[in-house]
């Protein structure tokens, strides 16, 4: 993108000033569109001249070169760009829309269980400044559900350890307050007691930054990602900051949190986006239905046990005559006894976020 198309310059201004997207997101848009622009130029075409067939041909050409997630991002960038051109009346209709370009289906992300996350959070050393810093990073990502860019951008003044609240500047320069649990607050406090050891040689560099490196400089998004990957691999897993954010949302939902509450904590404008982060299993849906439906706990006849009629008690469980391996209600009830009490989670925003009872829950994704 040495000579950026004037339309891309205008689109970049729109993303930055009107939509107020983060520099990282804007850069991704421009990288994707710059690649599409180069593809068109090699054929003597321009972005404004692109047809539906050319968009489809470009998307198809990416199947060999790019992973599904990267292709999905490219498609989203192209669609957004042409919607902007239509809105600005540069073109009359979007070639991406006319071509009915559909983002490739991305493989569903695997969400780790609570004990798996707990094992990863315990990996950093507790007796060094760097180890305490890494523990604080992991706890903030999981307890607060923060984005990696939000953790990197935190200043010391943004964290209120007494109230256990973190003031976050999210996407679109929108500020929100994120509660953290007592475990995370203690981890941050322990790190702050040793933080000066990382700044002793360069006190003037990033004096206000919460998360700093060995030279006192604020850590970048990429550096924080590497830290998370390093400790997750030490625990025998493959996790990223984004995986921890998914785990935050899913574990909250499984412990009884309302999805609208989770949406607010994560800083999502759309509930649809939040649903992508909350991985709900069929077993969990059956358990919720059994607990919540007014007729689920009626005393009388039920047909849960291999199609045979059984007497169900008032708590919704089958009687002793059922065969556990065949009985949906029995399995749901016995599984729910292994869960943490849903009332413990999210009863208060600050004390019951993920991580406050890691040793008492075994929640599947």
Describe the structure.
The chain is mainly α and 365 residues long. It folds into three domains: 6-98, Orthogonal Bundle (DNA polymerase, domain 1); 114-253, hpI Integrase, Chain A; 293-338, no CATH class. The protein contains 15 helices and five strands. A three-stranded antiparallel sheet has the order 1-2-3. A two-stranded antiparallel ribbon has the order 4-5. Strand 1 (159-160) and strand 2 form a beta hairpin. Residues 299-365 have low confidence and may be disordered.
> Which outline best applies?
globular
Distance between the termini: 42 Å
At CATH level 3, the topology of the largest domain is hpI Integrase, Chain A
Binned, the helix content reads 40-55%
Record the SSE blueprint.
Elements: H1 6-18, H2 23-41, H3 52-65, H4 68-87, H5 95-98, H6 114-121, H7 129-144, H8 148-152, E1 159-160, E2 165-169, E3 175-179, H9 182-194, H10 221-234, H11 241-254, H12 259-266, H13 271-277, H14 282-292, E4 300-305, E5 308-312, H15 328-336
Antiparallel strand pairs: 1-2, 2-3, 4-5
Helix pairs in contact: 1-2, 2-4, 7-9, 7-11, 12-13, 14-15
Short description:
With 365 residues, the protein is mainly alpha-helical. It is built from 15 helices and 5 strands. The chain has 3 domains: 93 residues, Tyrosine recombinase, N-terminal domain (DNA polymerase, domain 1); 140 residues, hpI Integrase, Chain A (Orthogonal Bundle); 46 residues, no CATH class.
